[in-house]
TrEMBL record:
Keywords annotated in UniProt: Cytoplasm, Nucleus
Keyword Cytoplasm: yes
Domain RWD stretches: 1-86
Source organism phylogeny: Eukaryota, Metazoa, Chordata, Craniata, Vertebrata
Full protein name: RWD domain-containing protein 3
Length: 238
C-alpha cells in the first residue's frame, strides 16, 4: 500500500489529579515506518486543545528517539507514565462542554476544507462513514450532492481537519467496479483555509441534495462563501 496504515487507540491514564483521563490517539504509520516516525493526533474530552497539542509534541519527541524500531507500544507506556508531567496540572481536567467551547479559540483558529469527490459507488455506506468521522472529530459543514457533483465542506479545528484528510485518504470507504472495498483515490482538495469573519459558522454537519446549480450556489452564499463557490464549483461542470 502506498499510504501506510492508520489506526486508533484509546488510552486511559490514571492518577492525574485523582481523575482518569481518556486519550483518543490516531496513529498514521507511513510505508517506511519505523524509519520515519508516525503522524499522531491527540484528542481528549478532559483536556483542552492546547494540552492535547502539548501531548502530541511530546509524542513526536519520543518517537524520534525510537527511529528504526517499532515504537507504538513504547510510546503508549511512556505517556501513561509521564502525562502528569507533560500537561500543566493547574488546568489539567475540565468537562467536555468547556473543552468544546475552548476549541473555538485555539491558536490554530477554525479552518475550512472543501473537497471534491469523483463518485460514490457504495453511497449509503460512504455517507454514513463521512457522517461518523465528522461527528468524531467535531467538524461541521455539508456533504453536498448536485447532479454528478459531490462536495464535502468542513469547518473545525485545523488539527481535526487534517485528521479527517488522513482518514479520507487511508481508509477503504468505497467499493471498486467489482464490488471490492477500496480507498478513495479520486478526491481533490479544492480549498483549505482559515475561516474568516465574513464566513458563517455551520452549527451541524448535514447531508443535502440540490436539484439545480442555483440551489447549491445559495447554500454557499448563505454561508458567506460566494467567492469560494465562484472560484471552485463552476469549473467542475466543464
Amino acid at each position: 500500500e502506498t499510504h501506510g496504515i492508520t489506526f486508533r487507540i484509546q488510552v486511559s491514564v490514571k492518577e492525574l489529579l485523582d481523575t482518569d483521563v481518556l486519550l483518543k490517539l490516531l496513529f498514521h504509520l507511513p510505508v517506511n515506518y519505523p524509519s520515519t516516525p508516525p503522524d499522531i493526533s491527540v484528542n481528549s474530552d478532559q483536556l483542552t486543545r492546547a494540552q492535547c497539542m502539548d501531548v502530541k509534541d511530546k509524542f513526536l519527541e519520543q518517537a524520534k528517539k525510537h527511529l528504526s524500531e517499532p515504537m507504538i507500544h513504547d510510546l503508549i507506556l511512556w505517556i501513561q507514565q509521564h502525562l502528569k508531567y507533560v500537561i500543566k496540572p493547574s488546568a489539567a481536567v475540565c468537562n467536555e462542554k468547556t473543552t468544546l467551547s475552548k476549541g473555538t479559540s485555539t491558536e490554530d483558529g477554525i479552518w475550512m476544507l472543501l473537497l471534491h469527490l469523483d463518485h460514490m459507488r457504495a453511497k449509503a455506506k460512504y455517507v454514513k462513514t463521512v457522517q461518523k468521522w465528522a461527528s468524531d472529530l467535531r467538524l461541521t459543514g455539508r456533504l453536498m450532492f448536485m447532479g454528478k457533483i459531490i462536495l464535502i465542506l468542513l469547518q473545525g479545528d485545523r488539527s481535526n481537519i487534517k485528521e479527517y484528510l488522513i482518514l479520507q485518504k487511508t481508509f477503504k470507504v468505497d467499493v471498486d467496479s467489482s464490488g471490492k472495498k477500496c480507498k478513495e483515490k479520486m478526491i481533490s482538495v479544492l480549498c483549505e483555509t482559515e475561516v474568516q469573519s465574513q464566513h458563517k459558522r455551520f452549527q451541524t454537519f448535514e447531508v443535502k441534495e440540490y436539484s439545480t446549480l442555483d440551489e447549491l450556489q445559495k447554500e454557499f452564499e448563505t454561508a458567506g462563501l460566494t467567492t469560494l463557490f465562484s472560484e471552485f464549483v463552476p469549473p467542475l461542470l466543464k
